[in-house]
Every structure is written in structure tokens, then in C-alpha cells.
Amino acid sequence: MTQHDKGRLGPPGVVAETLLYSILDAMPVPVFFKDDQGRYLGFNKAFERFVGRTREEMVGKPVEALWDAELAKIYKDADEALLAEGGAQVYEAQVKYADGTLHDVEYHKAVFHAQSEEITGIVGVMLDVTYRNQAEEKLRQMALHDELTGLANRAYLMPSLEQSLRRANRLGDELALIVLDLDGFKSINDEFGHAVGDDVLREVARRLRDSVRDSDTVARLGGDEFVIVIDNLHSRASVVRIVSTIINRLAEPIDIGAEQLQTGTSVGVAIGPIIDEDASTLLARADAAMYVAKRDPASSYHIDGDADLS
User: Model's pTM, two decimal places?
Assistant: First the structure.
């Protein structure tokens, strides 16, 4: 910087403050800085819009005077940890904007030392990550759920089933794994097309959800094959009641436009856990039971091992 430039810019102290706020106010994200007692020293226009308050209302005040107790404690604890450890800090918190909407905010904070003013404090930048988090959650849901029916998919089912087996082993409980597929579904696809077939699958998924408890897991493994996990089995006899309900519900005609379509189902059941049984083994038992039912014209369901259902 030349001597001419220094003269044009004016006294260093005035220049520093004017330039600082000009730069900060031009930033589109909220920026703030506080002293080591948690009192606000300043912030930019974006921060003012975020909190819905002016500099005059906030400068010199601690977080406890400006935020509700729960949020103020989060800020205060984070500030004290950062001041004690030094360096930088990144964390997320859900905060309420001035317009009353809740947002996920990622804080990036660091300790500063202003030697000439003998001030130590914290400077922070706030990034609104609400839409990013929503997009990530949507991707997680898509990865774990069947796109057509909205049911859980295999990627969700298998870890969940493993967890249910561990819990049942620990508590001495039982669970039932029900596997079913639709009889005659291929002929529906062939005669009416895959769009109608998809409508049938969506309606089957809805009926299955309605046939069990909210706490039970209903999944689609692919095609016309579905799985239901009944946790905390109160009695083995209740499995027969559930299976009978499912068979009766799926036997009801399905209205697709002007058409009334009929489909049956074959159901296999495995009750577990057997000692050291994993999710894949339990699923294989239920799947084998379903194929026994499919080969038996006298019955729509089969229970693995002819379990005692008393």
C-alpha cells in the first residue's frame, strides 16, 4: 500500500472498523463475534436478519439474555469448551429464525485474540444446512425403502431383523417372520400391463400395513414378494390370526379403474429365534415354508417345522 493510499483511506482505526463492517455486511451468511464472557461484540446484517434484532439491541448482551434457556445453554457450553480448548469448533443445532421457522444450522467457530484491545473472544459463521439435511434424509429413505410401495426394502429389513433377533435372544422373546407372494400376479402383468401391476402392488402394500401393528415391519423384497416381521410375539396362536387376516384381505377384489382384479397369496412363517440363528437363516426358513404352501392346494400358508401354536 502506498503512502497516497494510506492518506486516502483515512486514520487506521476508522478504516479498520469501517472496512470490517463493510466486508461483513456484504457476506450472505450470518457472522458474529463475542468476548470471552459470551457478550456479543458485533455481527453483520445477515445475522441481524437471522435473529430479527438490531445491533443496538444485542451488542454487549450475553446469550442468556437473548435466547431461550435450552438454546442459550447449548451456545454457552459450546463457547466455554472452545475457549478452554482453543482452536476451532464445528457443530449443528436446530434454531428458530426470526420468522418463527425452525432451521438446521451448522456453526463454524474459532477463538480470536485482539492484542491491542486486550480482548479474547469467539468469532462464528452460521451456515443454514436445512435443505442439505433434508436432501440427505431423502436419499437415506430412498436407499432403505421400496420406491414403488414406500415399504422397507431388503437393505432396511436385514439389519432390522438382526436387531430384532438380538433383542429376542436377550429378553427370551419370540418373533414371527412371514414371507408371502401373490398367486397369479404374472398373469395380471401379462394381461393388463405393468402399470396396472404396479397399482396392484401398491394396494397390496397398503392392505399389509393395515393388517399388522404399527410396530411391525412390512417390507417388499422385490417383484411380488413381501415380508412381515412380528416382534414381541404374545402367543404363537396369534400368528395364525394375523396370517388369516392377511389372506382374507388380499383375497378381496382390487379395483383398478373399471377392472376388479383378484389375487391370492401363499404364505410361509418361521418362528424364532433358534439358538445362534441369524436373519438370513430365519428368512430362508420362512421362504421355504412359503414354497411348501404354494405346492399344497389345500392350504394358503405353512408354518416352518409345524410349530406348536398353542
Answer: 0.66
